[in-house]
Amino acid sequence: MTGTSRTVPAAESAAPAVPTAPAADDGVGPPRPARWLLRRPDADAEARIFCFPYSGVGASMFSRWPRRIGRAETCPIQLPARENRIRERHFGTFGRLAENLIEPLLPHLDRPFVFFGHCAGVLPAFETARQLAARGLPTPDRLVVSAQVPPHECPHDRFLGLSDEELTDELSQQVIARGGTPHPLLMKLTLDVLHQDLDATALYTTDGPTPLPSGITVLRWSDDPEVPPGRLDGWSAYSDDVEFAVLGGGHYEFLSAPADLMSLLERVTAPAKGGSDHV
């Protein structure tokens, strides 16, 4: 096997204390709010699904998803150092990412909303929900976690043990899965971002389960060998309302907006009995 070996940094624990002001992620000042979302949210949306990308990619990974799922608008989150934010400094850790994200996201949390994350995208989604709760701010009605072990069992990511050659091959497969054609220069740029994202993944852990006020839906994919079924059970300790579901397909099936996933998201964003309180 060839490739460059990686040094895994010391662990980052999700601390209970949350700074009152977000840290800058671009070396100059707080990022411009509009950049955090791929597009401006619609004012007439009844609910929102904020979608967190996984390692190495940006918000465009959700390009095959519909703009509306039932009554909910899909809102892909754009992270620094990629796509239209390619010139910005990487966020470093998921803790810092959440700190920076909350302020620009807050104006759009004025109606029912859900966080969705797949694989490593679950970690910033969870950390953002945790920090919102710690600050007494609106929290997701539901956190939908797909193909990721609970934070206290992290780090868990197959990519952490791969060489550059193997990572490039994986990235090429992802591009093809999204309907694109791998380009050598694009693969090199993406690999650089992926290394930094994997460092953030390797750092993130918690000392134990951190319960959220949100409900949690845990997804496993029937043909996905990356996360054995038993590794997802620990999510039960993260909320009083946890449900588990198995959907058909492999690890990247969600990219194509499969009907069973869209139906699930429509269900979890449907109006709750008795209404919902978001101020």
The helix/strand class is alpha/beta
Overall geometry comes to globular
Tell me which CATH architecture applies here: 3-Layer(aba) Sandwich
The helix/strand series, from N terminus to C terminus, equals EEEEHEHEHHEEEH
Could you give a short account of the major beta sheet? 7 strands, mixed
Q: Provide mean pLDDT, rounded.
A: 86
> What is the straight-line distance between the termini?
54 Å
Tally of domains? 1
Widest beta sheet: strand line-up: 3-4-2-5-6-8-9
Strand content: 5-15%
Number of strands: 9
Protein name: Surfactin synthase thioesterase subunit
Organism: Streptomyces pini
InterPro entries: AB_hydrolase_fold, TEII, Thioesterase
Family: Belongs to the thioesterase family.
Structural account:
This protein has 279 residues and is of the alpha/beta class. It has one domain: Alpha/Beta hydrolase fold, catalytic domain (Rossmann fold), CATH 3.40.50. Helix content is 25%, strand content 15%. The protein has helices at residues 94-105, 122-134, 164-177, 184-203, 259-268; strands spanning 12-13, 47-52, 68-69, 72-76, 113-118, 142-146, 204-205, 215-221, 242-247. It has a seven-stranded mixed sheet. Helix 2 (122-134) links the parallel strand 5 and strand 6 (142-146). The relative contact order is 0.18. One of its GO terms (biological process) is lipid biosynthetic process.
Please sum up the structure shown:
The protein is α/β, with parallel strands linked by helices.
